[in-house]
UniProtKB/TrEMBL annotation:
Boundaries of every HNH nuclease domain copy: 179-226
Source taxon at top rank: Bacteria
Keywords tagged on the record: Endonuclease, Hydrolase, Nuclease
Pfam families xref list: HNH_2
Organism: Nonomuraea phyllanthi
InterPro entries per record: HNH_nuc
Top-level taxonomy: Bacteria, Bacillati, Actinomycetota, Actinomycetes, Streptosporangiales
GO molecular function: endonuclease activity
Protein name, per record: HNH endonuclease
Length: 287
């Protein structure tokens, strides 16, 4: 985990599969993930070391949508037979209260790490464990036993620690670490802008509801200074086009008029035209 803290910076927070498999500890290779299984329980250790969620294209749904309970806690399924040694390792991690690492796939062979995480319940009937992403979640009551305030608090933690980081990295990776409007390539200056805000029902944290934008163009999009039509063409609000100011206004905003978004290579990662149209109508209402 100390190595991950050094390796995963704000500029480059994701880690490659080959790095995890080739990790060196005390002069020997000590993989942090299993080469074939989702649970890593090294020989000679009683408890599991890490869990992994394989990358899947999310389409119009968040990839973790079915894996988070109403209590805000991640649910991680057993590896086949509950008596399999990896599942025994998960139960041991619960019994011993030891932390694990969770590697979430955001692209083929690329993972966003979450650590430390803790197993806070073993749900045998559902062949799964409940995983806390934050120290505060370790002390919350599970499922319906907890209060409504506790559940909302836990859900907010999961949104901040899971939904938002995964959404950001998936969108930025889909756009190859570039602003879709101005092509700025500094990752630390890029955001994953929601088309439909995430506070709304249709504002799912899926790549198709996002656009990689630099911070200036993200703010301009949120403030309806810029709009994007369903055909991916950018429009600048009429009053902004008429303003006279410095080079930022001219080159950073006004010259975007009628330019087209630079889109992801994969068609499934491109903005959903229906969501763009819904957002564009809001832009037109204030233009």
């Amino acid at each position: 985990m100390a190595w991950l803290r050094q390796r995963c910076t704000p500029e480059d927070p994701v880690v490659r599969r080959d790095e995890l498999l080739g990790f060196q500890f005390e002069g020997r290779t000590f993989p942090l993930i299993d080469n074939q299984l989702g649970i890593r329980k090294p020989q000679g250790m009683t408890a599991a070391l890490s869990i992994l969620t394989t990358y899947t294209s999310d389409g119009a749904r968040a990839p973790y949508e079915d894996a988070v309970g109403d209590d805000g806690l991640l649910r991680y399924k057993f590896q086949g037979n509950p008596r399999h040694y990896t599942n025994v390792g998960l139960r041991a991690a619960f019994d011993q209260r030891v932390p694990l690492m969770w590697f979430f796939g955001i692209k083929q062979g690329l993972y966003l790490p979450f650590f430390p995480v803790w197993i806070v319940a073993v749900e045998v009937a559902s062949s799964q464990v409940a995983v806390a992403l934050d120290e505060a979640q370790r002390h919350l009551l599970i499922d319906s036993v907890g209060s409504e305030i506790e559940r909302r608090y836990s859900q907010r933690i999961t949104k901040q620690r899971l939904h938002q980081p995964v959404f950001r990295q998936r969108v930025i990776q889909a756009y190859e670490s570039s602003c879709a409007m101005c092509h700025l390539r500094h990752r630390s200056l890029l955001d994953a802008a929601h088309i439909v805000p995430d506070r709304e029902t249709r504002g799912v944290p899926a790549v198709s509801n996002g656009v990689s934008l630099c911070k200036i163009h993200h703010a301009a999009y949120d403030e309806n200074i810029l709009g994007v039509r369903p055909d991916y063409v950018i429009e600048v609000r009429a009053d902004i086009l008429e303003e006279i100011d410095g080079p930022m206004l001219k080159h950073g905003l006004q010259e975007l008029q009628n330019l087209r978004l630079t889109l992801p290579r994969r068609r499934a990662d491109r903005p959903d035209p229906n969501l763009l149209e819904e957002r564009y109508e809001r832009f037109r209402a204030v233009s």
